[in-house]
Each structure stands twice: as C-alpha cells, then as structure tokens.
Amino acid sequence: MAGTLKREAKRFAQAHWDELVELTCQLIRARTENPPGKESLAARVVQTYLKSLDIPYTLHEKEPERTNIVARVGHPQTKVQEFKGSKVQAAGPSLLVACHLDVVPAGDGWETDPFEPLVKNGRVYGRGATDNKGQMAACMILARFLKEHEPQLQGEFVLIGAADEERGSRLGLEYLLEECGLTADYAVIPDVSYGMKKIDVAEKGALFLEVTSYGRQAHGSRPEEGINAIWNMMDLLQELKTLSFTCTNHPLFTPPTLNLGTIQGGAARNIVPGKCQVGIDIRHLPGESKEGILERVRGIIKRVEEKNPQAHFELKIDSYLEPSSVDADNPLVGLLKRHTESVMGLSPELTGLSGATVTKQLLQKGITAVGFGPGSEKEAHVANESIDIQQLADFVEIMALVCMELLGKRP
What we know:
Blueprint: H1 2-15, H2 17-29, H3 40-53, E1 57-61, E2 67-74, E3 81-83, E4 86-88, E5 94-100, E6 118-120, E7 123-125, H4 129-148, E8 156-162, H5 173-179, E9 186-189, E10 198-203, E11 205-214, E12 218-219, H6 229-240, E13 257-265, E14 271-272, E15 275-284, H7 290-307, E16 312-321, E17 324-325, H8 331-344, E18 349-353, H9 359-364, E19 368-371, E20 386-388, H10 389-407
Parallel strand pairs: 5-8, 5-9, 9-19, 10-18
Antiparallel strand pairs: 1-2, 2-8, 3-4, 6-7, 7-20, 10-17, 11-15, 11-16, 12-14, 13-15
Helix pairs in contact: 1-10, 2-3, 2-4, 4-10, 6-7, 8-10
C-alpha cells in the first residue's frame, strides 16, 4: 500500500509539472509588492484554481485588498465526545501549510522584468519565485492531490495564502490566529528555503531597536553654535559595535548578531543636523534575555552621554520576537525526514534559523510548527530571483506522502 501511494504521488507530481509552472508564473505576474501589498491580486489566482477543483475556501481581510485565503480539504477535527460510555474522536488531526502572497519590492539589478516570469533551464525567474510564490503554487497542486484522495482522509489539510508576511504578518497570519479563529494541530511553513535539506525547529530571538540622537540645528558655516546629532550618533554606534552577549554558542544556531540596518539624519549639507535616527536588528540565542540586552545597550548609551554632555539619546523598542523551538521528536519532523529520504535520497538535518518566520506565532498558539520547503535561501530578496522546478515537484511529492500518512484513515 505504501509503495503504491509513493508511486502514485510521484506520477501525480510529474503529470502536473506544466500546471505547477503555470501557477507559479500567474502568481508572479500578480504584483503584490509590500508595501502596499494588494494581495487580492494573487488571491484571485488561488480562488480561480480552487473553484475549478471544488475546494472550499474563505477570504479574510483586516484592511481592503490585503486578502488572506484559507482553503480546506478533508474532514475538520471534532472534539472528543462520550459515545456509549467510551470517548471517541470523529476525525483525525489537522495540518496547516501557510505560504504568503506578498513579496518584497523588486529593487534594482534585474536582467528581465521581475513581474514577467521567465522559464529557463528548469527554473522559474521572477520576484517571489522562491519567496514564496513557487511554494504557494506547489501547495495548490498538493491540495489538488489531496482533493482527489479526500475519501481516504480522516483529518484536515488547511492551506493558507497569507498577506503581509514581509512586513510582520499583522494583516496576515497574526490576524487569522488572533481574530479569525484559525487553529491546527500541526503546521509546515515552506518559507525556509534550504531545498528540503533542513528542517527549521528553532529560531533566534529578534529584537528591533530604534535609537534617536538629539542635537541642535545651526548654520553649517557656524557648527560651534549647534550640536551635531550625527557626530554624536557615530560615537554611539562605535560603542554599540562592542555589544556583548552572554549566550554565544548553541548546537542549532550560528552566533548572535547585531546589524545596523538604517540611518537617517540631517536636512541639508549646510545645516548642522538636530536629529539622527538609526534602526538596529539584534538576533540572540535561547538563554539570552531581552532585558539583559537592553540593560547593556542602555549602559553603552549612558557611557557615551557621560563622556559627551552634549549627546542625548532616546531608545525605543520597535518589536520583539522571543526565541522559539519545537520538540524535535514530534511526529511531523519524523514524517518529513522519512519521506524526504524516500523521495530525494537525503535525510534533512535539524537547524535553527537566524531569521524569523510565522512559526513563532503558531508555536505561541500551541501549534506544532516547523519550517521546511524548496528553494535556496540565497535567492530570496535578490535580483533575478528564481526557483528550481524539480524541487517544487519533489516538495509536492513529499508533502503528499506526509499528508496521507498524518491525515489518512487508519486501518
């Protein structure tokens, strides 16, 4: 039986190769750069496909045209009930797979139109090909496979095309979880692009800070009459580069990092700047506290202010996501490893991610969530972004086997 299903999944993935490519191209053509997002354009592509397969779906918008689409195949989980003196459960577990419909701005350096996809040498090129529209297309093909096998399912497959992932998910998965009642037992987030060679079971903490330097504006020819907020900020930044961490090693992670991401200040070259603002990105390991990091940052600010009485800084926390992890021995990880090995001949290793995905929000809701998917992490957010079509087809095959084992009826 298992061998028959494996052969069937492989045949299905190969038979729908052209459809997979076409869906990826259609999604890329839907311009959903965030900002402004306008994920409704991509959601229409998904709607049309789901309607053709008679797969039920719902649309959810926190703001106009910031569309989330939720499709379901199988049978929803029911609560455990008493039946003739015994506790029974009428349906199996639920597996949520969440992709996102928004993309980062195209930027510069493209050799072709980023929103007119190019299929060449077994790859699809275009903005969003690997982050995350190729994966969305693969999951749509997966939904078709599961719809054709729906009588064999005891649990439920939930496919999400989410909005706003590239800007924090406030209008996307966070909205679905907090305001729309979205829930599941397990989740796979194919937004971690390691070509199915890794499974993300942990993520660093992400602390985003905004620091403002206040000075006094004056004429550029008389700088002694002002206080230069940029010079003072430069002094502070030199000190911040020495920020230390108490936790520097972890078997799943690279070391903690500090990145100066943005700097803004000054109105004109002949004006002493009265204000300068920077954005700082800190990624830390489990075991390190946000409070400890902030205490050390404040200590650095205080030292600079004491050394230069004209310097004055304000520290603001933009956002914070705690480190997260999931039990590596959970059934979902085991299924992903086993079926990836059977399809691709390799066993994915467990890893911790320096970046942040929506697995954090899912874990906070008690959903066992991991990151796993096709593509290369080096392709995301770059010019001439592309994805390998064979990897997308392999992902369909792997996930078809995982879903049928996790959600299928037991003998």
